[in-house]
Write a structure and sequence with these properties.
This protein is mainly alpha-helical. The longest helix is centred in the first third of the chain and has 16 residues. It is globular, with a radius of gyration of 22 Å.
Length: 365
Amino acid sequence: MAKERKQVETTGMAWRDWMKKKRYMAAALLCSAVLFSGCGAGGNANISAGMEQVEALEYDNALASFQAAREAKENERLILRGEGLAYMGKTMYAEAAAALEGALAGSDGRIGPLDYDINYYLATAYYKLGEKDKAVRVYNAIVALEEGERDAYYLRGVIYTEQGNMEAARADFDKTISLNKSDYNRLIDIYEVLEGNGFREVGQEYLQAAMDGGTKNMTNFEKGRICYFLEDYENARTYLEKARDESGYEAVLFLGKTHEILGDSNYAISVYNTYLDNNEPNPQVLNQLGLCKMNLEDYQGALTAFQAAMNVENNGMMQTLKMNEIIAYEYLGEYRQAEVLMGSYLKNYPDDQVAKREHTFLQTR
């Protein structure tokens, strides 16, 4: 496996999260995780059960529950929405799109929160099918109905960025920022989208503009994180050290990574361990500790950290952790164990094309 693969760091890669940050960037377009709220335990009991199974990633069971809901004549629109989400979880995006289209068609003509929710999921299904123009049309419809829908502008801007249409992308990102200028998390999302598509300098322009606009209302963590992405690591370290006790594990992550970049991985490890010694186990910090140890070629230590993170209940990043565990076993030369784990991984995450290629490689070892 290519060495850079291990640099996938934190955040869950579950289908419900914005695949934001790449974090692999397709990252950025997995629709908003709007929690199911439309059915009670009475008349829509099977739908409730199905949505709980979707939450638990039990997609086949969820589909069975939705079929039972249909037979019990529960709310058809909510059934179709649930089936759409379950099919997305199974990476059956054509079926997901068909179900979600059906859910939209069941509208009574009065636009409400459920309509926006379904549209966001439908746009994601189109995106995953490679039908980006259809996804754009969905976002067009959303903003035509509600000009303040920041997520629609942002996600449409992501697509325009991927298509190289920077004029349109910048217009959408500018609109996104104008609707909430103090949302520095979204500002960094925009940077990461641009950086991930080869437009890092454009992304840094947005970050620098925020700094130039005044930092009076920014926290030390926000200033430190922006400096980190501006590659101003000395100032990032200063701000993040101040934020260490203010912003919890996120400040610890960025402080540690800053020290790694500055060449002091041993101090970074002490930053992670100090946090872990004084707080409940944190999967993101444990994962970054593992990555840092991996870079130091302490593969057994890395494996221990990844597995400790996997043992944290509801860690929200199991896909990332499972992949990093496999990589650690590869570096330890335990190819048979890596192959077994990769087979299990692909059953849960069948649309990971890089993992499929790696599985083929492992089978030859």
